[in-house]
Amino acid sequence: MLTWLSIQGLALVDSLELEFAPALNVLTGETGAGKSIVLGSIGLLLGERADAAWLRAGVPRGFVEGTFDLSARPDLLEAVRALDVEPEEERVVIRREIHADGRSRALVNGRTTLLGPLRALGEVLVDLHGQHEHQQLLKPERQREFFDLWAGTSDEHTALEHERADILESRRALLEARARGESDRENEARLREDAEELKRATLQEDEEEQLRRERDRLQHRERLLAGVSEAADAILDDERGATSVLKRTVRGLLHASAVDKGLLPLLEETQRLLNESADLGGRIDQERERLLEDPLDLDALEARLDRIHRLKRKHGADLPGLITLARTLEERLRALAPDEDALQEAEQAHARRLERFGSRLDEFLGIRAASTGSFAREVGARLARLGFGKAALRVEMADRSAIRERAADREGALVDPPSIPGLHFSFQPNPGESARPIQRIASGGELSRVMLAVKSLMAERDRVAVLVFDEVDQGIGGAVAEEVGLLLRALGERRQVLCITHLPMIAAFGARHFQVSKGVTEGRTTTAVRALTGADREDEIARLLAGARATATTRQQARELLRTAEGAPVETSSATKRRSKS
After folding, report:
1. Which residues contact 240 (CB under 8 A, 6 or more apart)?
2. Is the model's pLDDT at 356 over the cut of 80?
3. pTM (2 decimals)?
4. 357 pLDDT tier (thresholds 50, 70, 90)
5. DSSP readout, 47-89?
6. How many CB atoms lie within 10 A of CB 182?
7. Torsion angle, CA of 560/562/563/567, rounded to 10 degrees?
């Protein structure tokens, strides 16, 4: 509930602090006294736009701050945490600051926030009726939530939404799998041809580089042979070759070292060179012999390289990529048949799940449809008490047969699960007149009373913390006003209610009564709000009864009105008696 509200430097307010009761709080005062300032300040807490026009003249900065105590509402604690707001000691403190230069700032528990998140938080905390920005009853989705809460179908609606989302995701995955499978089957001949072509090519990792080297060698065979032969002769020639020279050198040093042992190291080094020369000559001679053999077919080698180049161009891959592609194509071809079987099984399972969803949706819609009559009767009874005569609030739902899209899947096509139809409220002000969407109710007072009828029916089921009613008494009086007061007080037993009223029959039912007044202090007009008790409250009720001409008689009437309101039984909404069907 909203426990505390502080308004500083806004409109006609210098400084104002209010503590609200957890039940019905009423605000009264002369027309133009500034009651709208309180509602406007609450609107700022809910995320309404603010500008410097809100500031009191001559004030550089103003603010409004409200404290919401959620200690008795674990459901709301969970809801605000879902909005990334962490309550402090189970409280949420919202502050809006406005500066003369047009800047404004919003804070939640001391942390700056944007208006979008603030509005989302405001919709959880406060339902404000009488000002179009926060008339939740105007939103079709909110109407659906109201009705499902009352009918006990809210949990099933949420479960169906989740199930439908899962089915849509399953359908998407199946469609993608089918598309891949069909693409593979359409291209199976090409896949198989490519796989066979790569398989016949018997490609090797380093083959291309080896073929290039061999081609270069064959293209320059004569030059290579001449050079290798010259090198072999330079080493192996019997007369002038390096080996012959080294042999003669070894013989000379062998004879000399017999006389001078100091020459033995030279002899050993020369012998090593002779051995290495003979080995080198042998290898060069082997290369010459290889060149003299019948060479490979250069045309065949060129054809092999051309084949590799064509495959590379065709598939846009290098040689290692072609080898990998060959393995991949084999795997895709092997996987085609098993994937088709698995896909058919998955689609059949999807169709069965879709069929179950359709049956479940039909049952859900049947429960909804069976509840519309009771809902209309009970709201209608409250509307009659609230001065609407034989007005009716009807629940309009889509034709079940029109929205029933079953998975008649003769050709295996995957279809979307049927969407969950919404609903909307239509208002029929008088018998014989056509019902109109509730958004077309022109009067804020009428809309507030319709909302009061709905809220009183389902007070324990709606999650919002605070209900604010303005203009709820517009165009009514007497017994109807008393019924409005009774319903507001009953609603206040389950939710905190703030109500601005001009009628004493409503004001008398308040658990806390605030008087809004306007006066001139030091030459400046100022709005003040004070909580009334005892004789002060009697005087205010008397003023509402008789205006400025309040007399002893009207004061006595005020006392009787307060005693009657205090002793009136609190109505128990039939919504609290209805067993939940969810």
Report:
1. none
2. yes
3. 0.64
4. very high
5. T----GGGBPTT-SEEEEEEEEE-TT-HHHHHHHHHTT---BT
6. 12
7. 140
